[in-house]
Amino acid sequence: SAAAPVATALAAGTTAPAAAPAPSPARWADAVRLERWDEAEVQLDALPEADRQRPEMRYVRGRVALERGDAARTVELFTGLEKELPLLVDDIVRRRAEAASVAGPFAEAAAFFGKSRSLSDQHRAALALEKDGQLAQARTTLDRALAGAGRSRRKSDEAKLRAARARIAEAQGLLPITIADLRWLAVEAAGLPEGEAGAVALDRLKQSLAPKDQLARALALVRAGQAEAAVPILDELEKKKTVPHLDVLHARAEAKLKARDYPEAEKAFRVLSTLPGPRKVEAMYQSANALARGGQADEAIKRWLDLSSRFKKNSWAERSLYQAARWLLLRGRYDEAAPLYTRYLALFPKGAYREDAEYEQALAQLSASQPKVAQKTLSRLAKAAKKPDEAQKLRELEGLAAFRAGDRDEAVRIWTEVARTFPLSFAALAARSRLAAAGAPLPPLIEPAAARPANPLDLDLPDPARMLVSIGLDAEAEGRLLPFEREAAARFAGREAEALCGMYGKLAHARRRYRVGVAQVGMPQLLRAPGEADRWAWECLYPRPYLDEVQKLEGEHEVPRGLVHSLMRQESAFDQEALSPVFAVGLLQLMPKTAEKAAAEVGMSFDPSRLKSPHVNLRLGSYYIGKLLKTFRKTPVLAVAAYNAGPKAVGQWMRPGVDAEADLWVARIPYDETRNYVARVLGNLARYQWMEGGDAAVAPLALEVPVDVEVPPDAY
To answer: Which InterPro entries does this UniProt record tie to the protein (predicted)?
Structure first.
């Protein structure tokens, strides 16, 4: 982590009482940096009084109080502070207003936020007015904000505004407005906290949604990843029969499928497949899909083949034929899968799955008795690939096909070329392992660095950013540096990218540093080992934020060094505020339910509002990847796949007797997202390992993948 000049200055010349020695300033700064707010409060309050009264220390203590929910303390500490700390005057004024909107003076907070046009600020202004007893003005503020809410792409903004207006309107006795907003929340914001609170409030007021709105709410919950909550609503609608029966049955079956209750989903779709209607064939397809996901793939294949024979050119028949071939491939029935792909390609020459079918057919042929045919297809697909990494993965498999066809020299030539062309990628690692297994010479892991002496830049941060880093507020420091980028880099003509990467490297927060690297560092700089003069480029593209904490957690949970950062790079691009469409959160993109279970297992209290905190996210994410590694016998390929797709899905793709060496197993992963994810994370890992210890630190890719692992029923 970055040096802490303010903390160092505090340590100089201070002597704490013997009974209560002052803690190391580095500890409180690191606690702030990792957002361990309770620990930071204790550490800061233990400092000598003279140190606590310094302006920068009052600022950081106020920030800690605000994060801990002690708004009154923040108001106290920030009052008049802008005069003593002019570097942060705008921030101090704003955060004091944030605290005042909670603890008062409310009129002051309302006046401050009322000047802004942002929806979140209008919301704060209304809350302050509400607490000040000015309900009519608060509602007027919310009315005005909601009139412009349509321009916001975030439904959560409108949900907060409507929740506040419903509460205020109820306090004013304006029940029609209250009920209208609560109904909107229950349906349109289903899955968000405000939406669920709205549904509860409707029950309290003895109001109910119309049946069609109940159905819409259930479908919204399914889309929001809360299918379990949708099922009781749909069960009740099915009993009452107040909306079209088929619509309810389809929604219920979909909810069961999304909730991973596969036996019930199969039963629900099977019932639907016996009823007349436009979605009959879809229900037949989905009943087989539920069977396959529930572990009865052989029966699912039979049903898909029957459907494809009965309905010919129907789009669901196309999908069924393709899925039957894919699951035969996954089950290791290669001699059956290959001709089924041929049939699909003949019946649907412009089909939706044509590209996938050609690729998977080659995999089936490679593992059956047709490696020479597979080689031709893989060569053609590699030449047509639009991305270099995709081309190299296909080329590595082409080499395997050549080897199995008896052409060892051609295989060695291809693998050597792949290993040299895109070093430290998944394809290159696989090619090297294949060369080693074939007893062939290995090319250099990566071409050696160019011999250029380093000429270090004399870098410094602008004053506000430097001060914020010194007190552990690196994320805020990043925001302060952003407006100065052009000016700061202008002093280093010709080396602007290096200068920016170096300046952002002084922060523990790596979001902007990585983005600068992506924009400024070209692929040629990654094709040879970095030397003293250009190591900055690798460090910019492969940063290691919170390094001490990450390495401590990797050691604690027996995770290979560098794997947590490799996951972080792929999951969130080092953005702790990242929130995915399915509500995965933070640096390691944890699903709240996964995080809650992990927290229970490590004995940690769980607060979903703190899941973005680096301390919480890193601790739970590191534990979880460690747990997956234990489940899958320390095999990174399997554990990384499970981190993305879930351990039960990975369990479905493992079967004794399949052709399951690492490169082939990854190639057969049925989800493009997961297949590419595994390759990228393992490529990240190789580069992180190289940066730490050079060639010797890069672990070879183990070709052997255990396929007899039993995934426990309670795996998550």
So the answer is: Lysozyme-like_dom_sf, TPR-like_helical_dom_sf, TPR_rpt, Transglycosylase_SLT_dom_1
CA 631 – CA 714 distance, rounded (Å): 12
Q: Give whole-number Cα distances, 550 to 279, 557, 604, 639, in Å.
A: 50, 11, 18, 18
Rounded to 5 degrees, what are φ and ψ at 590?
Answer: -85, 135
- Asked if the model's pLDDT at residue 627 lies above 70, the reply is yes
- Is the distance from CB of 378 to CB of 664 less than 8 angstroms? no
**Pair 620, 590: CB distance under 8 Å:** yes
The span from the CA of 339 to the CA of 373, in Å, is 13
Mean pLDDT over 49-57 rounds to 96
Query: Which of 132-136, 276-280, 520-524 is the most confident on average?
Result: 132-136
For the chain, the maximum distance between any two Cα atoms, rounded to a whole number of angstroms, is 87
Which pLDDT value is given to residue 548? 96
Q: Give the whole-angstrom CA distance, residue 339 versus residue 556.
A: 49
Q: What are 549-554's contacts with CB under 8 Å, separation 24+?
A: 549/34, 549/614, 549/615, 549/618, 550/618, 550/622, 553/618, 553/619, 553/622, 553/623, 554/622
Q: Give residues with Cβ within 8 angstroms of 618, minimum separation 6.
A: 34, 546, 549, 550, 553, 564, 587, 588
* 549 pLDDT more than 80: yes
Task: Grade residue 313 by pLDDT with cuts at 50, 70 and 90.
Answer: confident
Cis link prior to 105 (omega < 30° from 0)?
A: yes
Backbone phi, then psi, for 506, in 5-degree steps? Answer: -80, -5
Separation CA 243–CA 237 (nearest Å)? 7
Residue 32 in contact with residue 60, Cβ under 8 Å?
A: yes
Please write down the HEC assignment for all residues of 513-563: HHHHHHHHCCHHHHCECCCCCCHHHHHHHCCCCCHHHHHHHHHHCCCCCCH
- Six token digits for residue 295: 């572990």
Q: Quick one: the chain helix, strand, coil %, rounded to 5?
A: 70, 0, 30
**Chain mean pLDDT for the chain:** 94
Give the pLDDT score at 24.
46
- The single-letter DSSP state of residue 68 is T
410-433 burial, b if ≥16 CB within 10 A, otherwise e?
A: bbbebbbbbbebbbbbbbbbbbbb
Please tell me the distance from the alpha carbon of residue 128 to that of residue 135, in angstroms, as a whole number: 10
Please say if the pLDDT value at position 316 is more than 50.
yes
Please give the structure tokens belonging to residue 557.
Answer: 């949970």
Q: What is the pLDDT of residue 62?
A: 98
Distances in Å between the alpha carbon of 576 and those of 60, 61, 133, 572, 612?
20, 22, 37, 7, 6
Length of the chain, please?
716
d(CA 233, CA 248): 10
Higher pLDDT, 657 or 297: 297
pLDDT of 148 strictly over 60: yes
3-state secondary structure of 590: strand
Distance CA 153, CA 478 (A): 25
The model carries a pTM of 0.91
| 3-state SS track over 273-308 | HCCCCCCHHHHHHHHHHHHHHCCCHHHHHHHHHHHH
Would you give the DSSP letter of residue 704? B
Strand partners, 704: 661
Instruction: Please report which helix (H) or strand (E) contains residue 191, including its range.
Output: none
Map tokens 């009322």 to a residue.
114
How many whole angstroms separate alpha carbon 582 and alpha carbon 407?
47
- What single-letter amino acid sits at 321? L
Any idea which residue has 């410094």 for tokens?
Answer: 460
Helix (H/G/I), strand (E/B), else coil: 706:
coil
